[in-house]
Amino acid sequence: MTGKRRDNFRIRISEKKLRLIIRCFAVDCSATQTGKIVHANRNTANRYYEFFRDLIVKDGLKERYELNIVNGIEADESYFGPRRVRGKRGRGASKKVIVFGLLKRHGRVYTEVIPTAKQIEILPIIRKTVATGADIYTDGWRSYDALAVYGYNHKKVKHHTDEFVRGDTHINGIESFWSWTKHRLNKFHGVHKRHFKRYLLESEWRFNHRDDMEKLLKLLIKQGR
């Protein structure tokens, strides 16, 4: 938004209602729910939501330049879209969006949309994001087999043999993030592929700032006015 357009956008509601909209957005109320709570038109709530998302996307992209994960990493890929047909991993993905994720245990998550779950797509992301020598936890997907060659301490569980936890070796954290993100996106009754990256980055940002989201959003709004 330009400065003039943002000012016009801002003065439509009171400061009290704006704070309430921010709180509703932080707890992930829909625009319809927020409109009822604030006693405002749904379209008004939705315009503010889109403004907030613009700020979040900008902030989330900026954070990626500062990313340098040094240890305790869970890596996994997931498929978003129509239910995957039964069969070997990845089958039916032609109608899906494939997302690769890295989760720092007890820390932040990083996601990236990839065209395929092959090694040629996954390894460059890991190498630019994770420090050499770090512990990386994965399942038994063959795309991760070369991690040790590149100096990582690769620990894996073999899901295909029903092994999901072995001591501290598991990927429960990143799998929980996938489950939470899919549940969240389902509330939108389907997200078009054209907008998927935007909503994915918002989910990533929400997860990474789950303890200070409302405070940080208010700061971004103040800086963005």
UniProtKB/TrEMBL annotation:
Residues 69-208 form the ISXO2-like transposase domain. The lineage of its organism: Bacteria, Candidatus Roizmaniibacteriota. This is ISXO2-like transposase domain-containing protein. NCBIfam families: transpos_IS1595. It comes from Candidatus Roizmanbacteria bacterium RIFCSPLOWO2_02_FULL_43_10. It comes from the Bacteria.
